[in-house]
Amino acid sequence: MSFSEYLLQFMKEQAYKPMTEGELLTALNIDPGEKDFLIKTLNSMEKQGLIVKNRRGRYGVPEKMNLIIGQLEGHPGGYGFLLPENPELDDIYVSREDMNGAMHGDMVLVRPKVPAKGSSKAEGEVVRILKRSHKTVVGTVERGKQYSFVVPDDKRIFYDLYVPKEKTNGAKNGQKVVAKIIEWPQKRRNPVGEIIEILGYPEEPGIDILSIIKKYDLPLDFPEKVQKQVQQIPDEVLDEDLVDREDFRNQKIITIDGEDAKDLDDAVSIEVTDGGYRLGVHIADVSYYVKEKSPLDIEALKRGCSVYLVDRVIPMLPPKLSNGICSLNPRVDRLTMSVIIDFDKEANIKSYKITPSVIKTCERMTYTQVNKILEDKDQEMINRFKYLLDDLTAMRELAEKLTQKRFARGSLDFDIEEAKVILDENGHPVDVKKEERRIGNRIIEEFMIAANEVVAEHIFWLKIPLIYRIHEDPDDEKIRSLKEFLYGLGYTLKGTQNLKPKSLQQILEKAKGKPEQRLVNTMLLRSLKQARYSGMNSGHFGLASLYYTHFTSPIRRYPDLIVHRILRKQLNNEIDEKQEKKLSKMVEKVAKISSERERIAEEAERETVDLKIAEYMASKIGETYEAIVSGVTSFGVFVELDNTVEGLVHVSNMEDDYYHFNEKSMALVGERTGRTFRIGDKVKVKVEHVNMAERQIDFVLV
């Protein structure tokens, strides 16, 4: 145990009262000559928010001093919420007056002031800022004669940045810039900044996406150290790489991926046996090339995952690895970690084997090709892949049985169609389509879930530390709200105390094919917690799985890379007590960083899609579409087009009558005509206006 861990344990004891440095020296029996070391440790722990020093110079842990540590989430309205680090605690509302210079994303200590009452959240005040989230801000310049302001693109940063004349560096009014914060905000004063990079005018090609990349601080280039290391990595598998690997090169192994995927993490094989099926899930052995604590490894952890923006991929690993030696490209030798699972005819697992391996895939298939063969019975495609037809049929059989088994235990399947934006070579959107989830996608989904569960349970029972993918049970309050909402739509949610996923699955099944299906799916999804990484296994609520991890995408997700390393150590019998302690610390740290990086990637990805959808719809002003009412509020109705694009018909634009919102029946009713709008109603709409800055689309009824 380190000295800081020992100190923390001591301060968490029941009988501990906050102490000064001198009192701690005496209580812990520390030699006075070691006082400097004690002070250094206390300062470091205070910076991390592990302990707090009060006004009287006494140290204690935050929770014993009525303080809560967490991340501040800003709101465009000028207030914020503390998202506590302790998942057991509820969010705390922080008013603008109580921000005390904190900004969106900062790690802060908050002192609760007003306890929670009914549906109102507890209120608190920021007493200390532990770590600043933003060193720079991306925004638009508003120039004055003597000074300028940078208006942040991220509306959750509700302070405009004041920029003195000498710090504008030639930026012109209306340009997108990156500004460095040189003075933090205070109670009644905006932050002060200096413009360090001029991106260009918003309407210039590529500036829109570049602004989002800079806003989320996504790294475009790899450091020199990483590039040097990559040069040492061979372009092909060498003979010495094959030691202690099972050779599966003579098996029929295929990859099934999207048309534009270049980083192929996973390949699959199947064999129909007398007793059932033998499934092979073969995953790129990235950990063989990315060694622990190497420049490549440090950079991969920093990135956390690959980011799939609407017009490009920002990879976790350099292209030489992600699209080259690690990618399971067709008809070349590749190093893998294979999970071979024997199922009986009902798709119950009989046995499994996890082994380092070498494979050579025979085809790089796409979801579209597999769908054409298995669903559309496309003769040309069937002839082209005739030698794989039996394998693909067996894969579908097994996948369907696995889906049935998952559903029987209560696993949730959200049928929310995503939008895919098609861009031309200049980055302009030319179409918005629905992303299809058909049999090809489902085969891969089921096989990956099976492999992830096998690996998680394998390591769990060996009592070895691991990064689990967890999805905790939902909050009671959110489920109560969901129950009320569903009741308004005519659905009854049973068993809300100690809720099981099965109850939610029944609601999803009932809503299938009905006009309100998408809304029910969306509201149900919002009432659940977000899945995250953790060193503690608490199961996966959404999959109704007791053991779950991420093992199948090490090219694009850092936790998977760590899971591979742990598996390799376990298979080589390298995990002793000392190694176990080291792993325990490491998995917690990596889980926290990876969860944070995943959230950032998701936000950036969603923002680029929303931006291009808005740009696409801005070129369609005046055009009419068939739509479905997807939501009803007091200020208007939300409508959704067939291609998933959603927008608002504001009540002020409904000029044929005065409309009132009936909360009980979830309807907007005309005062004079009695004309009623409910979820699922078909309407004809015209594109009226697009607000590019807010990514909002306004429609009017035709």
Summarize the structure in words.
The protein has six domains: about 5-65, Arc Repressor Mutant, subunit A (Orthogonal Bundle), CATH 1.10.10.10; about 65-130, Beta Barrel (OB fold (Dihydrolipoamide Acetyltransferase, E2P)); about 135-205, OB fold (Dihydrolipoamide Acetyltransferase, E2P) (Beta Barrel), CATH 2.40.50; about 225-405 and about 415-465 and about 555-580 and about 595-605, no CATH class; about 475-530, no CATH class; about 620-700, OB fold (Dihydrolipoamide Acetyltransferase, E2P) (Beta Barrel), CATH 2.40.50. About 30% of the residues lie in helices and about 25% in strands. It has 17 helices and 33 strands. The strands form ten sheets. The chain has a five-stranded mixed barrel with strand order 3-4-5-7-6. The radius of gyration is 28 Å and the shape is globular. The termini are far apart.
